[in-house]
Amino acid sequence: HGRSRSEQWGGKYEFLLSCMGYCVGLGNVWRFPYLCYRNGGGVFLIPYFIMLFFTGVPLFLMELSLGQYGAAGPIMVWKCCPLLKGIGIGMLCVSTLVCLYYNVIIAWTFYYLGSSFQSPLPWSCDALANAGLCGNNTAGNGSGRVLSPSEIFWNERVLGVVNSEGLHDPGPVRWPLALCLLAAWILIFLCMLKGIRSSGKVVYVTATFPYLVLIVLVIRGATLEGSLQGVAFYLTPDWERLSNVWNDAASQIFYSLGIGVGGLLSMASYNKFDNNVIRDTLIITIGNCSTSFFAGFAIFSILGHMAWKKGVPVAEVADTGPGLAFVAYPEALALLPGSVFWSILFFLMLFMLGIDTLFGNMEGITTAVLDEFPQLRLNTFHKSLFLAALCFCFYLMGLLLVTDGGIYWFTLIDSFSTSFGLIIIALFMCLGISFFYGVNQFCQDILDMICHCPPWCSKVVLYFKACWMFFTPFLLLFILTYIFIEMYNTTLHYGPYVYPRWGKALGVCMATVSCLQILIWAIVAISKETGTLKEVRPTTPAAAGGPAPRWSRRGSRLRSPSLSQTWISTR
């Protein structure tokens, strides 16, 4: 029972680097800087850090503590409260959708990385002019708007989206991208073949290399003409926007930390029982947010140079998401001396950022399945066969996203996979632990893990207790309300293409499936109980053994009065 020594991290640095790699992903580079400039520059940092300490850090600690104390994945860990098993199933649903589309981004990165070895760069005007696709740095797209060279390369050469009319018209598979996707899944399989023993070694490179690249890009950007204009655009405060930026700040904190997907919980389950989970939480969350802020200098210094060279405002070249990573920034790099070198460096960084995040999401899925079927752990061949089958299934499903119309499906899954369903999962996790399992008991569990607890530790736990019971649920409800309002009032689109109603309905269904698991499995748990304890017993730890014996090992102490039992008895 429990995690064997061979199934634990080789050292505390492997866990820290794996979590940093999981959290510091593509969103830190392509989403945070854009949100910062769009929401008033430096003013955005005020709500950002408030949301970090009242929502992000408490939920992060909760998920790490659950995994480490229970020594189990996102499903089995809910032996602590069988009524909430659906939270783990919901996490698995979200992880599946994220893995499905996230590796497509890595495939795009592979494609650009391979293309970066050409001189001139294939998205530069010099290269496209030779193919008759570019003149005077622009080309008409038939709609009156002009396309930059990098847009032509992205839309026509890479995606082939010009050959598709929308969701209903995916078209043929683009085999260069399909091969890149296959290579990405093979690499994921090889890196995870021996579980955390192999992926834990890989992160020494993949989690540290992006920091070296960011430092190099910041230094290079600082030497360019117009870089200060870009940085000023990034940071100049606009105090009038302070009242309008809270939702973006909360959403960015929530999504960048990877909360509610099961990856954090699974990685923490391989920790030693006495690992200082509070220390790790503070290091990872603050490090993640600091990286986001620092990445903004690397992005906007070089975008500022491109704006200066083209004689346009920085706002005209700034973008977010794939538009920044595969259009705006590559175009800026193509203008630099030694553009091939800088392009290789940038896309190698994106590749490593993406693969680390995918490690964490895949770990959430594999750990959950191996916990449910422990016999797979005992046979190395069967375990490898399961991982190979899982990667191959993801590859086959991902082929839809590398067709001519694949970007439409990608945008749909990206928009809804981590939408309201993920917020609801996190909300029920917070409320379930606080009011069903018992927040007092949970705080004691954390202190039990930290054997030599310094005086400040107990005071910090009181702060987290207040967050879990009051501040965090309130803020999650605020985010959830805003998401529903925005979903109702806005249309989903990719470029000029507006998604049909059935497409948006499909996305809502995808998000709903994950949060419905909470209700379904709660009903199952209650239906299995009989007698007068029908309401109470599903909220108490299961007595069975399995990979998480710590919930039952404490016996009667777990059944001592807690907030949940007090609440039920006084109804």
UniProtKB/TrEMBL annotation:
InterPro entries: Na/ntran_symport, SNS_sf
Protein localization: Membrane
Segment forming the signal sequence: none
GO annotation (BP), single: amino acid import across plasma membrane
Membrane topology, record value: Multi-pass membrane protein
UniProt cross-references to SUPFAM superfamilies, sorted A to Z: SNF-like
Superkingdom per UniProt: Eukaryota
Binding site for Na(+): 21, 24, 28, 256, 288, 353, 356
Chief localisation class: membrane
GO CC, alphabetical: plasma membrane
Disordered: annotated segments: 537-571
Disulfides per UniProt: 125-134
Record has Chaperone as a keyword: no
Pfam family, one: SNF
Transmembrane segments: 12-30, 42-62, 83-113, 173-193, 202-222, 253-270, 282-303, 332-353, 385-410, 416-439, 460-485, 505-527
Protein family per UniProt: Belongs to the sodium:neurotransmitter symporter (SNF) (TC 2.A.22) family.
Stated name of the protein: Transporter
Gene name of the record: slc6a7
